[in-house]
Structures are given as structure tokens and as C-alpha cells.
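FIELD: query
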Amino acid sequence: MKDSESLKQIVKEKYAEIAVASHKKSCGCCGDKEPDYSVLSLDYNNMKGYVADADLKLGCGVPTKHAGIKPGHSVLDLGSGAGNDCFVARYIVGESGSVTGLDFTDEMLEKARKNNDKMDFENVDFVKGDIENIPLPDNTYDVVISNCVLNLVPDKVRAYSEIKRVLKPGGHFCVSDIVLKGDLPNDMHEAAALYAGCVSGALQKEEYLKVIEDGGFSQIEIKDELLNDVPDEYLVQHVSRDAIDKYRESGAGIFSITVVGTKF
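FIELD: result
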């Protein structure tokens, strides 16, 4: 079992590769032994504020759609990547608000800042930091968002504790993430993790929601839920047909959820 620092380093290196190779169509999928970090992404093309160069297809939901962001709000995006959700949030908060993107990968931060330079937004900023130890003040943000990132954080309890700390009293979060429902046999879980890298650190849905509840949030609600099915033609490369049939019959699966919660 890898320790948390080793896991973080693996994630950092992978996302650095994606940022550098983002001109390629499938930057996260480099052969059968490499996970594809883009297969669960949703279409942002019709979102106001969308910047195509900032969309590396790494999300598993559209948190800005359900985040209740308003003009003038201060918004923090955790694991902001090249800035995709930050620029959509910036459209909503307008000139009177502000958006901060946090990422721990230098290559992603460089790409995000270059994208922001093109947009010339003075109220959008990108800072380097770890989600388990956010280098930002207490009680600062109206809204915290994140898109398919917290599932990759080793200590999710700590992550949600930090989210609560940086939110203003009465502030709220909206997070899109990957969760599991039901029992996935080890070989099935490994195949799914190869298919989509962000599956690797996913918790069971009820366990994930319990982390949020124990973190001191109220009004917890799932706003969107989508089954992310791994195709049979991929699974048969890794597991038996009998195992696939049992998996389908079990009702287990990999889901992306978009969940909100409010700081007490």
C-alpha cells in the first residue's frame, strides 16, 4: 500500500504529463497500461465563460452549474488544472467577484496563468497548494468548487476540513467526484482504474457522503448523479466474461456525483 505522499507524487506526475501533452487528443491515454483521465468528462461547449484552451477534459461533472454562484461572490476552485471551471465561474461572479484556482502541479498552473493572460482577467488568480493544507486564510470564500479531484486526495477527511475552514460562515461547496456503489471485485476495480485514472481513489458513495457529514456540513444534497460505465469491449481485455456478467447483474457501478453542502 502506497503512502499518501507517494500517491500525491503519482498524481502530480501524471497531471504534469497531461498539461505538457494537452495538445494531443487523448493526452491521458498513452496505451493499454495507462489510465485515461478524460473518458468521464462532460461537454462544456455551451457554458457561458467557457474557454476551450482551459478544458483538458479532466472533469466528471459541471459543478458551476449547481454551485449557486452569484455576482460578487468569491470562489475557490480546488484542483483547478488549466482553469476551465475558474473561467466559467468568473463569467458568473463578474467584475465585482473573484475566483482563485488552487493546484499543486506547476505545469497546470503555468497553463492556467497563460490562459488567464489571454483573457486579461484581473480578478482571477492561480496559486500553488495542497488540498490537504490549503495555503489560504480562514473564512474567505463564499463558494468552493472542485471537479473530479478530491477522489484523488489521500486524506478526504482532511480535505473537507480544509474546505470548511476557508469557507465563510454560511458559505457552501459544490463538488463533482467519482464514487462507487456496491462491491467491485479486485480485478474489476483494477480494470476500471486503468480505464479511468480518477477511479483509483474513489470511495463507496455512502462512505463519501459520511465524510462530508462528519466534516461539519449541513444541507448536503446530491444535485446530479451519472453512471460511468466501463465498456464490455474494454473489460474483456482484463477480466473474464463470467466476471463481467456477474458485475452487470450485481448492480454495482462507478458513478459521478455532484454534491453540495453548507458550512454550519
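FIELD: remark
Residues 23-32 have pLDDT under 50 and may be disordered.
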